[in-house]
Amino acid sequence: MKSSSAIAALTLALALSLFCAASLAAQRITAAVAPPADNPAQLPSAEDPAPPDDDAAAVDPSADNPAQLPPAEDPAPPDDAAAAPDPERAPAGPRDELAAAAAPPKIVLPETDFDYGEAQPSTAITHEFLVRNEGEGNLAITDVVPGCGCSVVSFTNFIPAGHEGRITLTVDLYAEWAGHNVNKSATILSNDPENPTMRITMRARVLDKK
Q: CA angle 34-25-15, nearest 5°?
């Protein structure tokens, strides 16, 4: 019985020793891994936030105060006098030409009968007849037809509205006409719708042969 009791006591003592040794080892491992909580000096300190940069944080007062911004200049109003073309200098466009072609012309001859007076035989007499266009369209004289082969004419073919032209009539006085009165005419053909044909006449008294 004494031998059994001694063995039991020895076993218990050995178990206690092992338990104490294990507890001491565990404490040493814990101390080596983590520092004690009551030593705040060993913990890494949090970095203090950097102070704000006054230059970076400063706000441009002009951004919140629109009154300080320079006022935008109002665009200058267009100059009507400079923009408007001069109707007297502007060239006639296609529309103006069409309007002039559609509007009727008006042929006016201040003189249609001219008396030259006395003239020598075997000479030529000439007179110039004035032609005006008093219509709104362009006047076109297409032809001037003499009454006989003894007359020669020249004329203005195209007369714009408000302008004037000329028709020149020349008559050769033959020698055999001596002592007679000569009456020669020519017919004017134009685009005047009211007077498409008009006649001009030149008279003369051919003297006798000396």
A: 150
